[in-house]
Amino acid sequence: MIKAVVFDVDDTLYDQKAPFVAALAPIVQLPSSFDLTPTFQAYRRQSAQAYAQVATGNWSTTEMAVRRLNAALHVQDLPPVTPEAALAFQEAYCAGLKEIKLFPGLATALEQLKERYQLGIITNGHTEHQLAKVMRLKMHQWIDRDAILTSEEAGIAKPNPEIFTAMNRRLNLRASESVYVGDCYSMDVRAAKQAGWQAFWFNHRNFEMPDGDWIPDQTVENPAELQDLLLALTTLTHQPS
Fold first, then answer.
1. Among 26, 28, 37, 4, which Cα is nearest to 203's?
2. Are residues 78 and 24 in contact, defined by beta-carbon separation less than 8 angstroms?
3. Angle value at C-alpha 122, between 120 and 167, nearest 5 degrees
4. How far is CA 227 from the centre of its chain?
5. Cα(34)–Cα(117) distance, rounded to whole angstroms?
6. pLDDT tens string 38-79
7. What letters, b where the CB count within 10 A reaches 16 and e where it falls short, cover 117-139?
8. Do 115 and 139 meet the contact criterion of CB atoms below 8 Å apart?
9. Of 87, 42, 39, which is closest to residue 64 (Cα–Cα)?
10. Phi/psi-derived region of residue 181, left when phi > 0, alpha when psi is between -120 and 50, beta in every other case
């Protein structure tokens, strides 16, 4: 029986690609029809590793901005940018992340879910940075601080399934009593399933499943479908455990 619904943050609760593209557009000057999804995904994948390089003193923050962006651009054979341009992108992207809003329908679903389930968040990234996003999204209305676990706090990052086990301890629940909602198959779905959780894949970027080893319990492809799925949980009849 599900007792907790736990969410990823980036590109699950809000559209992370929109501020990324808006910040990058004036720098790379591509046609509006050009799909930057592969570059965006490559930039996201580098997050934990990039910040670790800064934390260990291997890179300065400027070097991280340049290396991370140029590595992402290389995925689509786009030309590298100068350090000045990389820093301008970083500043614009950070500014855009201060204007983020929940995907449509999520607030309604969260309001109803809170009446029946423990709600939580597992997210990779610096605690201060991720909590700032959580506050901008006003998630504190539905989720208590002690039910928010960052990779910096845990000392473990997705896709390591141990971060999900750490959340089980925090919520005092068994793995079989928890479901995770995330947008990334490898970081969210596969990792949660390896930890014994159920996993709902919010596949709004329409990616193909990389392999068939771990099948999502549910897959939805847009915010309306996600809202319907979450609201369906509120209609389940709970049986005594």
1. 37
2. no
3. 70
4. 17
5. 41
6. 999 999 888 767 777 777 888 888 898 899 999 999 999 999
7. bbbbbbbbbbeeebbebbeebeb
8. no
9. 87
10. beta
